[in-house]
Design brief:
The complex is a heterodimer of chains A (330) and B (741). With 330 residues, chain A is α+β, with helices and mostly antiparallel strands. Chain A is built from 11 helices and 11 strands. Chain A is globular, with a radius of gyration of 20 Å. Chain A starts with a strand and ends in a 9-residue tail after the last helix. Chain B has 3 domains: 154 residues, Aldehyde oxidase/xanthine dehydrogenase, molybdopterin binding domain (Aldehyde Oxidoreductase, domain 4), CATH 3.30.365.10; 192 residues, Aldehyde Oxidoreductase, domain 4, CATH 3.30.365.10; 316 residues, 2-Layer Sandwich (Aldehyde Oxidoreductase, domain 4). Chain B has a 7-stranded mixed beta sheet with strand order 4-6-2-13-10-11-12, with helices on both faces. Classes of the chains: A alpha+beta (330), B alpha+beta (741). Chains A and B meet through helix 11 of A and helix 3, strand 28 and helix 16 of B. Bound molecules: flavin-adenine dinucleotide (FAD) and iron/sulfur cluster.
Chain lengths: 330, 741
């Protein structure tokens, strides 16, 4: 591990000032410390944001404002969240382990980096870690990698769960920078790799995350379904977050998001629209899934993800709408 | 005072021992579910593992690893590294190891890290004041290589076929042709890691020419010899301390990189040096279980009697290593069949050294045999339990030797009853929503071994006893059972016996490995105690068999004499020594079991949930039902991991291991582990050893994966022949089957 300067901020302003001067925020440390030990990340200066007071959950405009430092475990356990945004609770609880969730924070979770094993291996070519060096995952061990929105430069996924739910719930990210505050819809927060896979998201140097806001609850039926190699403490092979409202036998509103299939949680208005106005049915769900997965492409070991994502999304929609598709699961 | 070691008893297992002395003793602490005496130390963090005690002034070493798979190191920026903050030395020594020693080698493994055989091979040790400084400098190393092409995959032709490891009887080809039913299937299992909790670590300190090293080792007498040979010093100048070992599973059988490098660095720097492997080093640079490709050819007549049994295996290892995963070890003697073929082929690859891992051979061979047996039972239209029962031979079918004890049939029958096997339905017949439910069975078999082992017991005048041997407790319960044995034999309450282990200055034992530790070290303790009993009896003027020892008293006839009175102020010390003999060759010794699994398979995602695991084992006398059960459920979880989740993934273009931490190498989590039932059948094997105790911990992982994979078949109708059965493979097979149907 490289030597670094460590400071502690006691307010959001102090944190932002330090960030402006080049310090890197550290919250729970569950991701950043690992990366620093391996020297995948080598910040010279850390600003500890744990005491900035950004650890509150407050009501705001009928929705919720979740501070950047709210621990994953606390957010998942929060009564209002469990009642009005159960999708968020379930997504968080499907991630990591209790120990990590006790430590991990809302902002840290959004900012967590990919789990691509080449990214973690200094001996491998990786454009995300070392721009221009190449991408060893493209034709390598890529069972966990992306099938959507990839580029020849990077096929890594954003691996987290919480953000998948937040995208389906139309959350926004509150950011503070040198020029004041700005708000970014969560769906636009993470970036696709393009030719800059080193940039995971739209946070600029000198900016910090203040929190996440949730709009009013939709009252829809919410389901989070995560497929993984073991039942806990494993990243998703694919996950699906759905929030659907059915009125008079017709779907009036739908939000479908897939996780671990791209460098960002994957949602499209077109896919959501496929469902609106139709009766909940297996066929309708499959059409929506096909729309959302349009253009999906495997890279060898991860070819299975296309079919798995489709089946998982259809199953999540069926669960949310109470349709029985088990009898003919294919 | 008597002379130290006045008493000794040596016993060689030349013939069966039916005295069953442990059924006649009276203290009644043996075969009881007693807690581990060291348990409180462990759960309160006071048991110090290898890297948890640093002498004053300890420096820290971190390895520089090779990033190429094959070739030579031609240079390194050592001068620059030496100038980095805190750096004390950069050790590049020809005595450093290429890979750890294999179990029981007793001599140095291949040395000289300049010649590279696999990615991750340690090629230098950077030593610094702090761990962080050492690590930073190690990452700043820029080795120069002369790289060569490497081999990373077991080829379909062009491998070694050692004549001694092949065998055949009769004519399998024509038996297959004529049989009523036959199976000819190829299965594969991946490379696996031991993933023990405590990574390898060593803290070395020299005092003049004498080395003391705290290390995490399984077999101290061999490890001392291996370390001394590696360093070029006399074995008597090397002392290894391993009082507590946080798991090994075979991964700590032989001396490893960290011990040799720590000793070299400590000698060079004249100060203590600690080298604790990073989890990544453990995965890529210690040892692994070989991947296997296995071809099973089984055939039977219309009554379901096997007429042919063929099992060929392809495995890999590094160049020059003598060990290769003995996949077919139990195949020669488990099931009947006049026409037999055993094949064993070895490819030399440039990936992590293959070595012993819990039940080497059977852990990956038996599940595959059991899957193929399931396939054949289905073809023959016979219930899988019944099919196995029809094919248990009277004697070892390959050698004609009798079994020392074979209770496979009892395990299957009683296990089936306890599990509720009769509820098993037709294939793909039971469903709960999206979940397809199935039951599966597999036999478990593992060879049983005995090793040379010595121990002493010192009986103090006040009636306290101290057991001493260099045996290790790798989490298995050695402290508990050896204390119980001595207490039982000497008629002492548990709190009057203390057991000291894990110090190579103590009498040399079998060490922990191959599930022979309890039987071997235990027998030596029993013999030492018997020597003391003989002395006590002599003083009472009676025969040893006629004296009963209980609660610190000797009872003979109707006379009760306190032990302290018999000792009369004297200290007695006795040595016991067990040696394997003809009973290891004259008969076929093995342990047996039957394992049952209930699974639910998602027809949507291919995820497999194991709902229940049951096992019935016959594995000799159970010395402590609590620690024995722990060994079994641990073994079953091990088996569950090999069935569903565990796999070392190598990049086949360059030999890089891409699953090097516990986030990527998936051992089962708590949620993956279902309720487990373990039943032991009473078993007394007179050929095993004077205690009639046999191996346990490895047996338990031999059948589990077979039972689970067979249950997946019962649930879904598909067969996954490429382990582990991860969701992607399961759902692909389900989809393919639906496509056909
Ligand atoms: C073994 C393992 C398994 C896991 N499994 C899962 C899983 O299944 N699902 C899942 O979703 N996650 C999983 N995780 C990831 C875990 O959720 C993240 O590590 C965690 O959420 C990161 O939060 P943190 O507060 O510890 O972040 P830190 O490690 O402190 O920081 C991470 C990043 O966020 C930045 N950051 C932190 N706070 C701010 C801020 N206020 N403003 C700007 N930047 C900030 C840091 O600079 C850093 O770049 C797993 C992690 C591990 C180690
Ligand atoms: S997929 Fe992305 S993160 Fe992985 S090696 Fe390629 S560039 Fe690096």
């Amino acid at each position: 591990m490289r030597d670094f300067v460590y400071d502690r901020a006691d307010s959001a302003d102090a944190a932002q000032t330090a960030a402006k001067e080049g310090a890197r925020a550290i919250a729970g440390g569950t991701n950043l410390l690992d990366l620093m030990k391996h020297e995948v990340e080598t910040p010279d200066r850390l600003i500890d944001v744990n005491r900035t007071g950004l650890d509150q959950i407050e009501e705001a405009d009928g929705g919720l404002r979740i501070g950047a430092l709210v621990r994953n475990a606390d957010l998942a356990a929060e009564e209002r969240v469990r009642r009005d945004w159960p999708l968020l609770s379930r997504a968080i609880l499907a991630g990591a382990s209790p120990q990590i969730r006790n430590r991990a924070t809302t902002a840290g979770n959004l900012m967590q980096r990919t789990r691509c094993a080449y990214f973690y291996d200094l001996g491998s070519a990786c454009n995300k870690r070392s721009p221009g060096s190449g991408c060893d995952a493209l034709n390598g061990v890529n069972r966990m990698h992306a099938i959507l929105g990839t580029s020849e430069h990077c096929i890594a996924t954003y691996p987290g769960d919480m953000a998948v739910a937040l995208v389906a719930l139309d959350a926004e990210v509150e950011i503070a920078g040198a020029n004041g505050k700005r708000t970014v819809p969560i769906a636009e927060f993470h970036r696709l790799p393009g030719d800059r896979p080193d940039r995971d998201n739209v946070l600029e140097d000198g900016e910090i995350i203040l929190g996440v806001t949730l709009p009013k609850p939709t009252g829809g039926a919410q389901v989070y379904r995560k497929v993984r190699d073991r039942r806990s403490y494993a990243f998703a092979l694919v996950s699906a977050a759905v929030d659907v409202t059915v009125e008079d036998g017709k779907i009036t509103r739908a939000a479908l998001t897939l996780g671990s299939v791209a460098a960002k949680p994957w949602r499209s208005n077109e896919a959501d629209k496929v469902l609106v106005g139709s009766e909940p049915s297996r066929k309708a769900f499959e059409n929506a899934a096909d729309r959302l997965l349009q253009g999906a492409q495997g890279h060898g070991e991860n070819d299975y993800k296309i079919g798995l994502a489709r089946r998982t999304l259809v199953a999540a929609l069926a669960e949310a709408t109470g349709i029985d598709i088990a009898g003919d699961a294919a | 005072m008597m002379d130290d070691m006045d008493l000794s008893l040596h016993h060689k297992m030349e013939e069966k021992d039916e005295r069953n002395q442990l059924d006649q003793t009276a203290q009644d602490v043996l075969s009881k579910p007693l807690d581990r005496p060291e348990g409180p130390l462990k759960v309160t963090g006071r048991a110090t593992y290898a890297d948890e005690e640093h002498p004053e002034g300890t420096a820290h070493g971190v390895f520089v690893r090779s990033t190429v798979a094959h070739g030579w190191v031609t240079g390194m920026n050592t001068a620059a590294l030496r100038k980095m903050p805190g750096v004390l030395a950069v050790v590049r020594d020809a005595k450093m190891l290429r890979n750890p020693a294999q179990g029981t080698a007793g001599e140095a493994p291949v040395q000289n890290p300049n010649e590279i055989f696999y990615v991750g091979q340690p090629i230098a040790l950077v030593v610094a004041e702090t761990l962080e400084q050492a690590r930073h400098a190690a990452l700043a190393a820029r080795p120069k290589y002369e790289a060569k092409d490497g081999e990373f995959e077991v080829p379909l032709e062009d491998y070694e076929t050692p004549p001694k490891k092949q065998s055949s009887e009769g004519d399998l080809d024509s038996a297959m042709g004529q049989a009523a039913h036959s199976v000819d299937s190829i299965y594969t299992t991946p490379a696996m890691g031991h993933a023990m909790m405590e990574p390898h670590a060593a803290v070395a300190q020299w005092d003049g020419g004498k080395l003391t090293i705290r290390a995490s080792c399984q077999m101290l007498k061999y490890n001392v010899a291996e370390l001394a040979d590696s360093l070029g010093v006399k074995a008597k100048n090397v002392r290894i301390l391993s009082p507590y070992v946080g798991g090994g599973f075979g991964g700590k059988l032989g001396i490893s990189h960290e011990a040799v490098a720590a000793a070299l660095a400590a000698r060079k720097l004249k100060r203590p040096v600690s080298v604790a492997l990073h989890r990544r080093n453990v995965f890529e640079a210690t040892t692994r279980r070989s991947e296997t490709r296995q071809r099973l050819r089984l055939c039977c007549d219309d009554q379901g009697h096997l007429t042919g049994f063929g099992h060929e295996a392809w495995v890999s290892s590094l160049h020059g290593e003598s060990f290769s995963e003995p996949v077919t070890q139990a195949s020669s003697f488990t099931y009947a069949g006049d026409n037999r073929v055993i094949g064993h082929h070895i490819a030399r690859l440039n990936i992590t050294c293959a070595g012993s891992m819990r039940a080497p051979g059977e852990a990956v061979g038996v599940p595959i045999v059991e899957c193929a047996m399931d396939e054949l039972a289905e073809k023959a239209g016979i219930d899988p339990v019944d099919f196995r029962l029809r094919n248990i031979p009277e004697k070892d079918p390959s050698t004609g030797k009798p079994y020392s004890s074979n209770r496979l049939a009892d395990c299957l029958t009683e296990g089936a009853k306890a599990f509720g096997w009769e509820k098993r339905g037709e294939v793909a017949h039971q469903r709960e929503g999206e979940w397809l439910i199935g039951l599966g069975v597999a036999s478990a078999v593992r060879v049983n071994m005995l090793m040379n082992s010595e121990a002493t017991i010192t009986l103090d005048p006040d009636g306290h006893a101290v057991v001493e041997t260099d045996m290790t407790d790798i989490g298995t319960g050695s402290y508990a059972i050896l204390t119980q044995l001595a207490a039982e034999m000497l008629g002492l309450p548990m709190d009057r016996v203390k057991t000291v282990l894990g110090d190579s200055d103590l009498p040399p034992s079998s060490g922990s490995g191959g599930s022979f530790g309890a039987a071997s070290a235990g027998s030596s303790v029993m013999l030492a105690a018997r020597a003391l009993r003989e002395k006590i009896a002599e003083r009472l003027g009676v025969e040893e068999k006629d004296v009963t020892l209980k609660d610190g008293n000797a009872i003979s006839g109707n006379k009760v004499t306190p032990l302290t009175e018999i000792l009369a102020g004297e200290r007695l010390k006795a040595k016991g020594e067990i040696e394997p003999g003809a009973t290891g060759d004259d008969v076929r010794q093995a342990t047996w079991g039957a394992q049952f699994a209930e699974v639910a398979v998602s027809a949507i995602t291919g995820e497999v949930r194991v709902r229940r695991l049951d096992a019935t084992f016959a594995c000799g006398r159970i010395l402590n039902p609590k620690t024995a059960r722990s060994q079994c459920i641990g073994g079953m979880v091990f088996g569950l991991g090999s069935a569903l989740t565990e796999e070392l993934s190598y990049d086949l273009r360059n030999g890089r291991l891409m699953t090097r931490d516990l986030a990527d190498y998936h051992i089962p989590s708590n949620l993956d582990v279902p309720p487990m039932n373990v039943t032991f059948l009473e078993d007394r094997d007179p050929y095993a050893n004077p205690m009639q105790a046999k191996g346990i911990g490895e047996l338990a992982c031999c059948g589990t994966a077979g039972a689970i994979l067979n249950a997946i078949h019962n649930a879904t109708g598909i067969r996954v022949r490429d382990f582990p059965a991860t969701p992607d493979k399961v759902i692909e097979a389900i989809e393919a089957a639906q496509g056909q149907g």
